[in-house]
Specification:
By secondary structure, the chain is mainly beta. It folds into four domains: about 160 residues, no CATH class; about 200 residues, no CATH class; about 110 residues, no CATH class; about 60 residues, no CATH class. The protein has six helices and 35 strands. The strands form twelve sheets. Strands 17-18-20-21-22-23 form a six-stranded antiparallel beta sheet, with no helix packed on it. A four-stranded antiparallel beta sheet has the order 8-9-10-11, with no helix packed on it. Strands 30-31-34-33 form a four-stranded antiparallel beta sheet, with no helix packed on it. Helix 4 packs across helix 6. The protein is globular, with a radius of gyration of 26 Å.
Length: about 550
């Protein structure tokens, strides 16, 4: 052992770092994120990096966000079980569960291109991923996984795993899509028997791409066992049996013919789901299996004959589970609200609801009941739906994979099934490194002051969603802007001495105030953090003087005095 101290340094929006820590070393945060000038918390003292104390030390390894979202430092391997790992530093990405290794003797200045993917722990995501490493007396390496502890009351605790060689029992898919057997006819994109087409009410925005979707649930001719049925949940992610396959094809509308881009698969195995991507050749005749992320520069004519230039990003195998994470249920679009829609049977021409069609196959347990009573998303261009329904349907499809309970920071709830107050959007203080903490997610009547609009209209590296989008969605922004503008701002602050409160000290100078009066939806309570729904609210206030304190509540309406 060398006595070297290795440290994982979580970045902001662009880079993660691995550093070797030395006495008196200054690793340049918050002025630099790796070698990128941070967009500047220059309220810090000193206000320039040149005035920083200590020895300035650059990163040892910098990792882009495709490689790591939250780097977790580990150990240099000194065990005896795996000689090929001797002298290699092991570290991980919390959210994806990827475990990397790199030669510890290499000099500083490395990037993601210099590290090797060792293995990937399944079912990881923010709050559910790798938290730490440990080593035993023999030098063997162990991994600590949160499994939702501290973010999910139903979880009993984390788990500890030992690093072992990756199981090779699941061979790689064929190198060419034509050899996979998913399509009976590649030219017409006729799916193989057993792959059932489906549609969604609110498509995910993917830089203007058009999509076709298919689903295969394993069966022996009848869905008559638990291993052949979907675990149906009206207002939560569905559960899928081992052997389920989802296929999604992407192409761009172009003249004189569509441009085939990629076909993706989500496959459910005993070890958990995984995703693969096939990139179509330029001639659109076949597609090749990808292992890493790629880009393609496109220049084409749209159906109206206007020239278009854009860059398409193909996800690598490691990218898929960043969005298709276990907190979101892995399958983002195959759920009640998205499939609660009409569907035409290609063989019979019969039109029926997609959930009813799956139920007719006996493929759902428990049975769904009347689909009119189930949640349903609506399309952005559905003129028969309210603006609020269109906005929250879009948020559910595009944002709820991360923005949900136990999800990421910036913790508003984008799920369609949450009630209005539980969304925590209107007048809710921003959270997260890329947002002004003094601002709010949605400011009623003020589009410019609404962080939701700013981030969704951004293309400067702070855009939302951060993955899978490089172009703005004009239809979404044209829907979101008037919705925000038409929201009525809350009335002026009012002292409410009649409001019942319960007070409990939580430590230091902070006091928690719990409102027990019933409020009508929606209520906005200002505080950080704050919470409100139709029956209760809580806000923290700083300091309580000898004469008590006044609670101020911004409200739309309440029943009672």
């Amino acid at each position: 052992p060398t006595g070297d101290i290795w440290e994982g340094d979580v970045g902001e929006a662009t880079w993660e770092e691995v550093n070797k820590v030395v006495w008196g070393g200054n690793y340049e945060w918050p002025f630099l994120e790796a070698d990128r000038v941070h967009r500047a918390r220059l309220t810090y003292e000193p206000t320039t990096i040149d005035d920083a104390i200590g020895e300035r030390r650059g990163h040892h390894i910098k990792l882009n966000r495709a490689t790591s979202n939250s780097v977790i430092g580990g150990f240099v391997y000194r065990g005896a079980l795996y000689p090929e790992l001797q002298g290699r530093f092991l570290f991980a990405d919390h959210a994806s569960g990827r475990i990397y290794s790199v030669d510890a003797a290499r000099p500083a200045g490395m990037t993601q291109d210099d590290v090797a993917l060792l293995t990937q722990l399944p079912n990881c995501s923010s709050g559910f991923g790798i938290a730490s490493f440990a080593t035993d007396a023999a030098g063997e390496i162990y991994v600590v996984k949160l499994d939702g502890v501290n973010v999910n009351d139903d979880r009993e605790g984390g788990t500890i795993h030992r690093v072992v060689p990756e199981d090779a029992s699941n061979p790689d898919p064929p190198a060419r899509l034509s050899d996979l057997g998913a399509f009976a006819d590649l030219e017409t994109l006729t799916a193989a028997p057993g792959l059932r087409p489906y549609t969604v009410n609110t498509p995910l925005w993917s830089d203007g791409a058009l999509k076709r979707r298919w689903l295969a649930v394993p069966n022996d001719g009848a869905h008559d066992t638990a291993a052949e049925r979907i675990d149906f949940r009206p207002d939560a992610p569905w559960g899928f049996p081992v052997g389920t396959v989802m296929m999604k094809h992407f192409e761009l509308a172009a003249s004189p013919a569509p441009i085939r881009l990629e076909t993706r698969f989500m496959v459910y195995t005993e070890a958990g789901p995984y995703g693969v991507t096939y990139r179509w050749d330029d001639d659109g005749a076949d597609a090749v299996l990808l292992t890493g992320r790629e880009t393609r520069d496109l220049a084409y004519l749209d159906p109206a004959g206007d020239p278009v230039e854009q860059v398409w990003t193909f996800p690598g195998r490691d990218d898929c589970m960043q969005c298709h994470n276990p907190v979101a249920g892995t399958a983002l679009g195959v759920n009640t609200q998205q499939l609660n829609a009409p569907w035409t049977d290609a063989d019979t021409g019969e039109i029926m609801n997609q959930i009813e069609a799956l139920d007719a196959l006996d493929a759902l347990r428990p049975r769904p009941g009347d689909v009119e009573d189930l949640p349903r998303s609506v399309a952005l261009d559905d003129d028969g739906a309210t603006p609020t329904a269109r906005v929250f349907s879009y948020l559910d499809a595009n944002c709820a994979g991360c923005h949900r309970p136990a999800g990421v920071e910036g913790a508003f709830d984008a799920r369609l099934v949450a009630d209005f107050a539980a969304h925590r959007l209107v007048n809710q203080r921003n959270e997260g490194e890329n947002s002004d903490p003094a601002g709010v997610v949605v400011a009623p009547g003020d589009v410019a002051a609404s962080e939701l609009y700013r981030r969704d209209a951004a293309d400067d590296g702070t855009q939302m969603p951060p993955l899978g989008r490089s172009l703005l969605d004009p239809a979404w922004l044209a829907t979101l802007e008037p919705w925000i503008r038409d929201l009525a701002p809350p009335p002026p602050w009012q002292a409410r001495p009649a409001v019942e409160v319960g007070v409990a000290t939580t430590g230091g100078a902070w006091t928690r105030v719990a409102f027990t009066q019933r409020w009508e939806d929606p209520v906005v309570v200002v505080g950080a953090p704050s919470y409100a729904d139709a029956t209760a609210a809580a806000v923290r206030v700083r300091g309580v003087g000898p004469d008590g304190f006044e609670v101020r509540v911004a409200r739309f309406a309440c029943d009672g005095d």
